[in-house]
Amino acid sequence: MRKTFKPLVAATVLAGLLLPFAPAEAQWVFVARKALGRIHQMTEGQQNGCAGYDFATVILDASADRVFAVALDHARRNSAVRILMQDPGARRLQIAEGDRMATLNVVPFNDDVSQLMIAGHAGQGESSTAPIIVQAVLRICKELNKHCELGG
Q1: If you average pLDDT over residues 97-105, what whole number do you get?
Q2: Average pLDDT value for residue range 69-83
């Protein structure tokens, strides 16, 4: 009797340990689904006469490699920009247009979800890069057939 009881006890203890994590995982998935496609942006204003930085980020239900490949392809096809640096292994790309610069980075969350982040910096006397980087995010979303919109 005792030998058949041990596996039952072990299974019950194991189930008791794993059950608390199931709701946490479900909540994370719910939050991630709500965040998909919402573009968030932030601007860091000028300091000491130097132009500030603009940031845009979006979570996409697409692999990081696919998002990076689309972004790199757009940069290569855009004759107005120069590619200053590309690192496909790190999924990082830096481009310039005149005195404006932008750095793009794609971070994988899992095989099918990634985060696209773009930081832009305007040169002295140049206007903000915020509209440009948001449009870049929207173009990448469109190419990936993902619905993205500016978050509030």
Answers
A1: 91
A2: 95
Q: Strand order of the sheet with strand 82-87? A: 82-87, 92-97, 100-110, 113-121, 53-60, 38-44, 149-150
* Structural contact between residues 44 and 120, judged by C-beta atoms closer than 8 angstroms: no
How far is the C-alpha of 152 from the C-alpha of 150, rounded, in Å? 7
CATH code assigned at 133: 3.30.530.20
Structural domain harbouring 20:
1-35
The answer on 42 and 22 residing in a single domain is: no
| Overall average pLDDT of the 17-33 stretch | 53
Q: Is 50 found in the same domain as 123?
A: yes
User: Do 11 and 44 fall into the same domain?
Assistant: no
- Above 60 in pLDDT, residue 78? yes
Beta bridge partners of 136: none
Q: Mark residue 51 as left, alpha or beta (left: phi above 0; alpha: psi -120 to 50; beta: remaining).
A: beta
